[in-house]
Design brief:
7-stranded mixed beta sheet; 5 helices; 9 strands
Length: about 200
């Protein structure tokens, strides 16, 4: 919880804070996330406005996960910016606030939902150890980055295996027609008939 009482609800007053808070559980997506309890560094600016407190900040979080192509472990840092208005519940705007708007409770701000939205929505669903990661060999599972470009397998497509057995004993058959000669049919007979007459 973030205490805003120092702003005294005076529009125009502001405070800047640098905080370090532990990461909650399940703070990530399927293949990458922030380890539970890891330190989240927050650089915040709190501004009192008529409706409530406007919070602008940057969150720096450590990430751990695995590459979506080669499954190698990934560790990195990630930075997300956010801005959110927290409305006072006892004001006209706070009383009419929608369910998706955030309220102050006793002048305290719960930043966790805002951080989840800012960080989790920006995390890659398919993180990579590097942009050109070639991944794993689909036949043997070797890391293609280690195996090199010459790595390959001579594996026949199983869909053609039955046809390969048939092709071994069959010889090609030449096409046949009425007469296989190149000359037009009946041309020899006509020449011979003219010589006789």
């Amino acid at each position: 919880m973030l205490d805003t009482r120092a702003l005294s609800r005076q529009p125009g007053s502001s405070r800047e804070k640098i905080l370090s808070v532990p990461a909650p559980e399940d703070f990530g997506v399927e293949m990458v996330g922030v380890p539970e309890g890891a330190s989240i560094e927050l650089d915040l600016r709190l501004e009192a406005v008529l409706e409530g407190v406007l919070v602008t900040g940057t969150a720096r979080v450590p990430l751990e996960g695995e590459c979506a192509r080669c499954l190698d472990p990934i560790t990195s840092e990630f930075e997300a910016d956010f801005q959110e208005l927290f409305v006072y519940p006892d004001t006209r705007s706070g009383g009419n606030a929608d369910d998706d708007e955030f309220r102050l409770e006793d002048d305290l701000i719960d930043l966790e939902p805002v951080l989840r939205d800012a960080v989790l929505l920006a995390l890659p669903l398919s993180p990579l150890c590097r942009d050109d990661c070639p991944g794993l060999c689909p036949d043997c599972g070797a890391r293609l980055a280690d195996a090199g470009p010459e790595h390959h397998h001579d594996v026949a497509d199983p869909r053609w295996a039955a046809l390969q057995g048939l092709a071994g004993g069959v010889a090609p058959v030449p096409p046949t027609g009425g007469s296989g000669d190149d000359e037009p049919r009946g041309s020899t007979d006509r020449r011979e008939g003219k010589q006789e007459g």
